[in-house]
Amino acid sequence: MNHADQPAGEPAKLTAPAEPDEAAATARAAAELNKLGRAALTELNAADLAYTDFTGADLIAADLNRADLTYAKLSYARLNAAELSHANLNGADLTEARLCRADLNGADLSNANLSGADLCWARMSGVRLHEAILSQADLSGADLTEAKLPGAMLNKADLTDAVLTKANLSGADLWGALLSRANLRGAGLTNADLPGADLYGVRLRYGHLAEATLIEANLERADLRSANLHQANLRMAQAADADLSYARLGQADLRKANLERAKLGGAELPDANLQSANLRGTNLSGADLSNLDCAGIDVRQALLNAGAAVTAPSAVAAPSAVADPLPF
Question: What is the CA 164 to chain-centroid distance, rounded?
Answer without folding.
Answer: 7
